[in-house]
Write a structure and sequence with these properties.
Helix content is 72%, strand content 0%. The protein is mostly helical and 343 residues long. The radius of gyration is 22 Å and the shape is globular. Mean pLDDT is 82; it is low at 300-343. The chain has 13 helices and no strands.
Length: 343
C-alpha cells in the first residue's frame, strides 16, 4: 500500500493517494467497531474484527492504486513483462531507504530513552512524559504532508539540473513546517492541560506532562525544520546529514539527560536535554543543506548561494535518476493534470 502510494507521489500525483487514504479512513472508522461488536449485518468478530477492517482497507487501497497505475490514467505505465532485477536500482533504493530507516530508529530510541529516564520518577512521570511526547508523534504526519511533495519536487528539480529550484523548494517547505510545528508547540506549552487532560486527569501525570510540554514544546519548530529537510534530502539522495542530526539528538538526549539525572535528580533538566537535542537536529540539517551538502562538500559561507556555486561533488549525472539508466526529467514546463505540482 505505502509503496504503491509512494510510486504515485513520485510521479507528482499527490491527490489520488490522498483521496484513497481519506476515503479509506471514512470507511475504516465505522467498519472497525461494526466488525468488532457486530453491528447490523456484520458478524461480531471481537478484536479480530479490527484486524479484518484494517486489512480490508489496505487490500482495497492496493487494488485502487494498481487500477490507477495500470489503467492508463497515470503518467507512469509500468510493465511487469519488462521487470528485471538490477543491482544498480537496488543500490539506489537502499542508499536512501536504509539510511532513512536508521533515522527513524534513532528518533524512536530518543523517545524510548526519555521514557526510561522518566521512569526514575515513577509511573505518573512515565504517563505524563508519554502523553506529552505523543504530541511529537502527531507532528510527523503533519510534516509528512509537506514531505511527500518535497521528495518528488526536489528529486525532479535536481534530476533536471534545477539546483536553485530544489533549494528554494526545500527552504519554503522547511519554513512552512517550522511555522506549523512551532505554533503547535507554543500552544501546547501555553495550555498543556488541554492536551494532557484528554487522556487522564491524575494531577501528578498532568504535572509531569506539563513540565515536558513547557520545556520541549517551544522547540517543536526545530523538529519540524529537521523533519522537512530530512524529506527534502531524500529527494536529493543525500541522507548523511539528516542521519547525523538524528544521532546528535539521540546522543544529547541520552548523555545530557543521564548526567542531569545523576547530578541534579530533576526531571525538568532531563527535558532540557531533550530540547537541546531538538535544536541540534534542526541546526545540523539546516546548516548542511545551506552549506551545499546535497551537491558536494560543505562550503563556507553556509548559504543557499554558496550551495549553488559548489563546483565539485555531485553532478547531474550522479543523481540516482540518471544512474538508474533513465534520462533526467525534462526542464520544467507549464503543466496540467497530475503534473500541476511542477508549476
Amino acid at each position: 500500500f505505502n509503496s504503491l502510494a509512494a510510486v504515485l507521489r513520485g510521479t507528482g500525483n499527490m491527490a489520488f493517494p490522498a483521496a484513497v487514504t481519506c476515503v479509506g479512513v471514512v470507511i475504516l472508522v465505522p467498519a472497525s467497531p461494526a466488525l468488532i461488536f457486530g453491528w447490523g449485518p456484520f458478524p461480531a468478530l471481537g478484536i479480530a474484527g479490527g484486524a479484518v477492517a484494517l486489512l480490508s482497507y489496505y487490500v482495497l487501497g492496493c487494488l485502487a492504486f494498481v487500477a490507477y497505475l495500470w489503467g492508463g490514467r497515470s503518467v507512469l505505465h509500468p510493465s511487469l513483462r519488462a521487470v528485471r532485477f538490477r543491482w544498480p536500482l537496488f543500490r539506489d533504493i537502499l542508499r536512501v531507504g536504509a539510511v532513512a530507516a536508521l533515522v527513524t530508529v534513532t528518533t524512536n530510541l530518543t523517545i524510548i530513552i526519555g521514557t526510561a529516564f522518566a521512569g526514575e520518577f515513577g509511573p505518573a512521570a512515565i504517563a505524563g512524559y508519554g502523553t506529552g511526547a505523543r504530541l511529537e508523534y502527531l507532528l510527523v504526519p503533519l510534516v509528512f504532508g509537506l514531505g511527500g511533495p518535497l521528495v518528488a519536487i526536489v528529486g525532479t528539480s535536481i534530476g533536471a539540473g534545477e539546483r536553485e529550484r530544489a533549494l528554494r523548494t526545500a527552504w519554503i517547505g522547511a519554513a512552512i513546517a517550522f511555522i506549523l510545528t512551532e505554533a503547535i508547540g507554543l500552544c501546547a506549552a501555553a495550555f498543556p492541560t488541554a492536551w494532557l487532560s484528554l487522556f487522564d486527569t491524575d494531577p501528578r501525570m498532568i504535572e509531569a506532562g506539563a513540565r515536558y510540554l513547557r520545556t520541549v514544546g517551544p522547540f517543536y519548530g526545530m523538529f519540524g525544520l529537521a523533519l522537512s529537510l530530512y524529506f527534502a534530502s531524500q529527494g536529493a539522495g543525500r541522507l548523511l546529514w539528516p542521519l547525523l542530526g538524528a544521532v546528535a539528538r539521540l546522543l544529547i538526549a541520552a548523555l545530557a539527560g543521564w548526567l542531569a539525572l545523576r547530578w541534579s535528580g530533576e526531571l525538568l533538566h532531563v527535558f532540557f536535554a531533550q530540547s537541546v537535542g531538538l535544536v541540534a537536529a534542526g541546526l545540523i540539517n539546516a546548516a548542511a543543506v545551506a552549506g551545499g551538502a546535497w551537491f558536494g562538500s560543505l562550503t563556507w559561507p553556509w548559504s543557499a548561494a554558496a550551495a549553488l556555486q559548489v563546483g565539485v561533488g555531485m553532478t547531474i549525472t550522479d543523481h540516482p535518476l540518471h544512474r538508474s539508466g533513465r534520462a533526467a526529467f525534462p526542464h520544467p514546463a507549464p503543466a496540467s493534470g497530475n503534473d500541476a505540482h511542477a508549476a
